[in-house]
Amino acid sequence: MSNAFRPMGLAAAVAVASAGFAGVTSAQGVSSQNLGDLGIVPYYTTENGFASGFHVINTTSATQVVKLRLRRGSDSLDALDFNLILSPKDEWTGSIRSDEAGVFVETDDASCTAPAPNEGDNRFRMPDTFAEGASEGYIEVIGMAQVVAGSKIGISAKHKAGVPADCANVRANFFRVADIDYGDATVKGVHDSALTSDGTAVTPLSTYEDTPSDALIVSYFSRDADGGLEYGNNAVMIQGFSDAPMMTNQEALLVVDGIPVYDPFNFEQPNLDGGPGGTATRAGGTQGLYDTVIRPALGATAVYNDWSNNQSDSFSVNTDWVVTIPGQYLMVDPAGYLASLSTAIPCVAKTCDARDIPVRATINFYDREETAFTPEDGDLVVSPATSVSNGTDLEYEVNVIEWSDTAVLGSQYAQSFDVSIAGAANGWAALSIQSSQAKVPQMVWAPDANGAGSYTSAPVANAAPPVIGFAVWERNFGNNAAANYGRAVDHSYGS
């Protein structure tokens, strides 16, 4: 790969990964208490009349800086992100909706954000860059850092009579700072992963430490007001994701003479691989976490849950499964992949594209009376059909499986399984999954002190693809939408 492309943003997100990378602790994994320093919402949607919402709670007595990012369902490119600055014991709420102009996050919450929502409508409008296909996706809620007591940003974010003291001063901490200005408290912005300033000459740098592993609670819901369906759950919470602060700026990507300039502190950090990489002169954060934390915590070879295709004259009970395979953006060469989206030149396995997807899925399903169904050719219809009737490819980062003729979510990423051969209205299923065999290595970007460097492929230590999701149930009473209701049931996993 040519060094003419000097990675920034997505390119800078691809970090060196190794099993013994600094910052990885033994306390990492999925939280059984629904607390963590990283939350992943498996699915949001504005399709088919739905709107989605979420809550982020700071359980601590310190100010927390949190990255909230929507990733589109097709390939998990960054569709929209901004920062939440949550004062002690604060809770922030927002909803994801769409109109004729596209997708937006709307909030009436007073807590400081960087940037501020649009004046007049309190909305964060999704940019056009990766908006196509982003009416569905998943959400990363990442604890960037905890504010050290006495730091100016914490004082400015603290609520007084329900309103933060000074959100303008808070936002001043999220500008880009050049290496030449590093450590100068009069220069506003992000100085490194643990230092920022609002630019006031008399004010010292605000300092940060690692987000506690039990700092955040994240929950979500989706609602179809016209259809009478609402469901929700807790996000998948990871404890001990990072052990270092991961502050980054929120300015637009810097381009000089048409070439993106490497900026390890840009807004596409932190992500599921950790925080900024830093340079020879500025401290960075913890990296390599996708392969050493996320894949071990979420890796699975099978997904289990209930299904229903129960139809009667007066009601129906239908299910969709959401199967999300997060973090695949960390397994591509961003320059090559983005070029492949606009040209006829495909990414080449193991050099440009090392993703798990498409994930091969095979199915065995059962009724509620122990009867097993392992379909022969022609018995199970997969839409669109493949050469193997009992299997299909999960092509996207977010996948929806429909178990009845009546779709619950109406997803653009859906495919249907015909379970009519069971002769039963409901049961359970085991979905066995495995990564694409030709795409095993993770892509690794190795920058030098000037931000130039190259990509190489490195072995993925944990070959099982990371999987999260749930089954969403709808009990539908036809013309009586007010009586409809739904629920979400987390998947169980085999390894």
Give an overview in words.
This protein has 495 residues and is mainly β. It folds into 2 domains: 23-254, no CATH class; 299-439 and 460-494, no CATH class. The chain contains 5 helices and 34 strands. It has helices at 10-13, 152-157, 167-171, 289-298, 334-342, and strands spanning 29-30, 38-45, 50-58, 64-72, 78-86, 91-99, 102-106, 112-114, 123-125, 136-147, 159-160, 163-164, 189-192, 195-197, 206-209, 216-224, 229-234, 236-239, 255-256, 259-260, 302-311, 316-324, 359-367, 372-373, 382-383, 391-394, 398-402, 414-417, 426-434, 442-447, 453-458, 468-476, 485-490, 492-494. The strands form 6 sheets. Strands 21, 22, 23, 24, 25, 26, 27, 28, 29, 32, 33 and 34 form a 12-stranded mixed beta sheet that branches. The longest helix has 10 residues, at 289-298. The chain starts with 9 loop residues before the first helix and ends with a strand. Mean pLDDT is 85; it is low at 1-26 and 376-389.
What secondary-structure arrangement, pairings included, does this model have?
Layout: H1 10-13, E1 29-30, E2 38-45, E3 50-58, E4 64-72, E5 78-86, E6 91-99, E7 102-106, E8 112-114, E9 123-125, E10 136-147, H2 152-157, E11 159-160, E12 163-164, H3 167-171, E13 189-192, E14 195-197, E15 206-209, E16 216-224, E17 229-234, E18 236-239, E19 255-256, E20 259-260, H4 289-298, E21 302-311, E22 316-324, H5 334-342, E23 359-367, E24 372-373, E25 382-383, E26 391-394, E27 398-402, E28 414-417, E29 426-434, E30 442-447, E31 453-458, E32 468-476, E33 485-490, E34 492-494
Parallel strand pairs: 27-28
Antiparallel strand pairs: 1-18, 2-10, 2-18, 3-6, 3-16, 4-5, 4-10, 5-8, 6-7, 7-9, 10-15, 11-12, 13-14, 14-15, 16-17, 19-20, 21-22, 21-29, 21-34, 22-27, 22-32, 23-24, 23-26, 23-29, 25-28, 30-31, 32-33
